[in-house]
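Risk mitigation, structural track. In case the binding assays with protoporphyrin IX containing FE fail to produce interpretable data, a predicted complex structure has been prepared as a fallback.
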Amino acid sequence: MEYMYNYSITAHLYSIYGMIAVILFNLFFTYKITELPKLRRFMLIFTPMGSVMLAGAIFTGIIMMAAKHLEFTLANIVMIVLSIFIIILEAKRSKSLRFTTTATLQTYKTTAYKLLGIELGAIIAVVIFVIMVR
Ligand code: HEM
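Fallback model:
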């Protein structure tokens, strides 16, 4: 059981690094790409990648919760709330991209910067909080 728990922590952390990497890529290419069809094609690949990383963090989190017999700490509750929060923000972002036209591309970019910035800030804040209360 011990090694499963330790392995999950490592996998959990790599999923979180992966989430941060995908958000940074999204921010960079949202800034770089100026044509809507190109941006849509890029997001078609990258949005699911972000979901896979988040699913990895949630899945390894669930494994660890099971391994410690569902002994929830405040940190665990904060992490779960953060995961739900990120799912909602990502749904908002992909919905706003769906209804974007070439004329409103700049508006989408402003929304995307805001949402991705909030996601990145929230993840870093939770990581600092979790490590502080550990
Ligand atoms: C995006 C969301 C998440 C972030 C940023 C996050 C962050 C972290 C961090 C930084 C650690 C500490 C690792 C260490 O000790 O070195 C950790 C551990 C842990 N996380 Fe998460 N986590 C997230 C989602 C979740 C979810 C959804 C769950 C539960 C379903 C969860 C359950 C746990 C558990 C059980 C631990 C091991 C420490 C403990 O026993 O409380 N995490 N997480």
